[in-house]
Amino acid sequence: MGSRSVGRNAGLGAVGLRGPGAPLESTTSATLPVGSTLDRTDVPEYVFDHVMHHELLHKKHGIQWRGRRQHAHTSAFREEERRFEQYEEAAAFLNKLSAATG
Ligand SMILES: [Zn+2]
């Protein structure tokens, strides 16, 4: 144990979900309800891990430009995102959460 250096107490800001270090989700059609919603809701750890994984993939893949449009969630991005072992559960949880919070 102890292999997780970043838990929920570390805050999502540590991986750039909020603030000046997180330009990606604000400039693209974000699918993750990031920010205060995750902070105050009882969110399973795998959901945080999934969000973190998602953000790390942004750092890895960067933004593709197609003409004047940005594509952060490319098909390659999505494919790799689904490799997260609890992707389905995390995605389902986030879908429910965003449906509940609008
Ligand atoms: Zn994203």
Explain how this protein is built.
- The protein is mainly alpha-helical and 102 residues long.
- The protein has one domain (15-101).
- 47% of the residues lie in helices and 6% in strands.
- The chain has helices at 24-27, 36-40, 45-61, 75-81, 87-101; strands at 64-66, 69-71.
- It has a two-stranded antiparallel sheet with strand order 1-2.
- Helix 3 (45-61) packs antiparallel against helix 4 and helix 3 (45-61) crosses helix 5.
- The longest helix has 17 residues, at 45-61.
- The model is unreliable at 2-24 and 26-30 (pLDDT under 50).
- The protein binds zinc ion.
- Zinc ion binds at residues 24-25, 30, 54, 58, 72-73.
- Zinc ion is lined by residues 24-25, 30, 54, 58, 72-73.
What is the count of β-strands?
Answer: 2
| Biggest sheet strand line-up | 1-2
Radius of gyration: 14 Å
From N to C, what is the helix and strand string?
Answer: HHHEEHH
Structural class computed from helices and strand pairing: mainly alpha
How would you describe the shape? globular
Whole-number mean pLDDT: 74
Note the gap between the termini: 36 Å
Number of helices: 5
Number of domains: 1
Q: In percent, how helical is the residue content?
A: 40-55%
Relative strand content: 5-15%
* Biggest sheet descriptor: 2 strands, antiparallel
Q: List each distinct ligand once.
A: zinc ion
Unreliable spans are: 2-24, 26-30
Q: Which descriptors apply to this entry?
A:
102 residues; mainly alpha; binds zinc ion; 5 helices; disordered N terminus; globular; two-stranded antiparallel sheet; 2 strands
